[in-house]
């Protein structure tokens, strides 16, 4: 990639592209206008049902959804349970379509949480695809094996190498993503670990779960995972505010009690993808169609090569 050149550190350009005044996540359409997550469409009710079961298992009377978009998951949760307390956290103002009994906190964006996010008791905090959009340092090993920060031109996406990473970042790399081969890229997880620790410190009692696509030690991708999406299509990562920018999370570096793939997590919460018995179609066609839709969504949420490969990092607090 050559020697020193002008540019902006990817972490800074990434933050501004997503959370700046004209950032991607502040657009009118919101994330749902560009990509689908497990909180959208027919998958949402099944995921919501599993989270309600987790909250019940853990004795939690409130669910907080961090990085909740326009409240899609919160809407599904409220539909299924009229009594549980709900709070959404995102960078935009409260959506007008959201039920009036759902609390809302406006976040600064990235790893920063609002001051009012604090003191939760008996609460399940869900960070669903939040940490993958917490900007992190992108680094690359140069021809001599030194790990240097990658700089980017926000207008074109053109890259160059900057200074060596900081001592703290290098310690994280040696512990979690050691690399020496020239050309290898690392998405340094210090900002994600810090964001997660900050979140945990704001909960007095309950459980927090980070749900994201990620990887573990021994499975780190040598070329990194920085990716961009625009209108449902994968595009070149350019931090100009026109596309989503995301990178997989080093899930095992997060403070956790349990780390399992989504298939295991959801099946443990009663989500099964088996189709309903055919006889139900004759006895109650409407019930059969509802059960078939539920089974199809459950199969999608646990599918290999798709949502089922997500990771759940769960941490109990207090």
Which SSEs are present, and which pair or pack?
Elements: E1 8-9, H1 10-19, H2 43-57, E2 62-66, H3 72-80, E3 85-90, E4 103-106, E5 123-128, E6 137-141, E7 147-152, E8 159-164, H4 167-176, E9 185-188, H5 190-201, E10 206-212, E11 214-215, E12 227-230, E13 233-235, E14 244-246, E15 249-250, E16 258-261, H6 262-268, H7 279-283, H8 285-301, E17 311-317
Parallel strand pairs: 2-3, 2-5, 3-4, 5-10, 11-15
Antiparallel strand pairs: 1-7, 6-7, 6-9, 7-8, 10-17, 12-13, 12-14, 16-17
Helix pairs in contact: 2-3, 2-8
Describe this structure in words.
One of its GO terms (molecular function) is protein-arginine omega-N symmetric methyltransferase activity. The protein has eight helices and 17 strands. The protein has 318 residues and is α/β, with parallel strands linked by helices. It starts with 7 loop residues before the first strand and ends with a strand. The protein has one domain: Rossmann fold (3-Layer(aba) Sandwich). The model has no long low-confidence stretch (mean pLDDT 92). Strand 2, helix 3 (72-80) and strand 3 (85-90) form a beta-alpha-beta unit.
């Amino acid at each position: 990639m050559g020697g020193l050149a002008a540019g902006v550190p990817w972490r800074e350009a990434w933050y501004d592209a997503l959370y700046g005044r004209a950032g991607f996540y502040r657009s009118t359409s919101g994330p749902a206008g560009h990509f689908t997550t497990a909180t959208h469409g027919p998958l949402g009710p099944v995921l919501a049902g599993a989270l309600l079961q987790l909250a019940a298992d853990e004795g939690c009377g409130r669910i907080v959804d961090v990085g909740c978009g326009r409240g899609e998951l919160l809407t599904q949760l409220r539909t299924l349970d009229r009594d549980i307390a709900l709070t959404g956290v995102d960078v935009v103002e409260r959506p007008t379509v959201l039920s009036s009994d759902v609390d809302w906190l406006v976040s600064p964006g990235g790893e920063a949480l609002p001051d009012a996010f604090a003191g939760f008791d008996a609460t399940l905090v869900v960070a669903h695809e939040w940490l993958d959009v917490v900007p992190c340092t992108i680094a690359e090993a140069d021809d001599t094996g030194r790990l240097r920060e990658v700089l980017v031109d926000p207008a074109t996406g053109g890259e160059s190498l900057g200074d060596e990473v900081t001592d703290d970042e290098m310690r994280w790399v040696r512990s979690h993503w050691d690399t020496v081969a020239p050309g290898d890229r690392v998405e340094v997880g210090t900002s994600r670990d810090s964001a997660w620790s900050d979140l945990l410190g704001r909960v007095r009692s309950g459980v927090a779960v980070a749900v994201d696509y990620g990887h573990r030690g021994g499975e780190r991708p040598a070329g990194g995972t920085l990716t961009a999406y625009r209108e449902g299509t994968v595009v070149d990562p350019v931090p100009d505010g026109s596309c989503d920018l995301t990178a997989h999370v080093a899930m095992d570096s997060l403070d956790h009690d349990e780390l399992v793939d989504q298939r295991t997590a959801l099946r443990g919460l009663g989500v099964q993808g088996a189709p309903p018995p055919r006889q139900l179609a004759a006895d109650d066609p409407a019930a059969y169609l509802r059960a078939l839709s539920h089974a199809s969504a459950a199969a999608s949420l646990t599918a290999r090569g798709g949502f089922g490969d997500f990771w759940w990092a769960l941490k109990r607090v207090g």
